[in-house]
Amino acid sequence: MEQLWLTIKFLLLGLFQGLTEPIPISSSGHLLIAQYFLDVEIEGSVSTFALLVNTASLIAVLIIYREDIQRLIVNGVRFFKVKDEETTRDFMFIVYLVVATIPAAIIGLLFQDTIDDYLSTIVTVGVTLVITGFALWLIRDIHGKRKDGNLTMKDAIIIGLAQSVALIPGISRSGATIVAAMARGINQETALRFSFLLFIPISLGGAVLSISDILNDDNLATLAVPYIMAFIGSLIASYFSLKWFMNIMAKGQLKYFAIYCFIVGPLVVLAWLLLN
């Protein structure tokens, strides 16, 4: 019975993470909220759990954007033989993705442990959710006209810096990058595509850094089934959550996520104060 409950709990945590990963409300922040207020502990290695659910989200992104990824790869290679408008656009899109990855990679390597030690708190999440809400509210009515071929190196650097800020729990990665892109006048479709294609290298990098932790996870064998269920739950939830978010973006309804953050952020801080 205990093993069954553990498996169900990991499945629910995977679903929860997958649901919140694509949408701009911070999956890491919400996982902290669930752990704190619902007294939910992650048995085994947190690094193993995080790797599995994030990899599941990555696979969902790869599935949904498979045609874009295939086109970018093909045209990125063709660029060295044929430099036309299409190949140049896609090659530069790849370059901008690489550039935008660098800030978060450097800051993560240098300061991730410090962030985890000092900023992974409920109060931080409550405050940063409100900050996320304000950012989403500010760009809620912006309808940029710049597309894939209009991106610049400055755009890539600004979006990359925004992604690095999202290392703080409660600051949504997708929210930060989409806000930065739309604030630069980039249209919603391109902003969304760039944000989630940018998730691929940062997610792969995190996976590589977590390999040693997983190999040293003494609970890997005993928690195999719960880990698998968390992975499946995250994959399914991430896929449908991202599809839903794409529809929300197309309708220009980011304000609802801002309102959600305005409500949940203060409630989290208030609840913490009452409990302490």
UniProtKB/TrEMBL annotation:
Instruction: Name the catalysed reactions.
Output: di-trans,octa-cis-undecaprenyl diphosphate + H2O = di-trans,octa-cis-undecaprenyl phosphate + phosphate + H(+)
Q: What is the lineage of its organism?
A: Bacteria, Bacillati, Bacillota, Bacilli, Bacillales
What cellular component GO annotations does this protein have? plasma membrane
**Protein name per UniProt:** Undecaprenyl-diphosphatase
Q: Which gene specifies this protein's sequence? A: uppP
Major location (coarse): membrane
GO BP term, pick one: response to antibiotic
The Enzyme Commission number assigned here is 3.6.1.27
Q: Which Pfam families match?
A: BacA
Q: Which family does it belong to?
A: Belongs to the UppP family.
One GO term in the molecular function aspect is: undecaprenyl-diphosphatase activity
Q: What organism is this sequence from?
A: Planococcus halotolerans
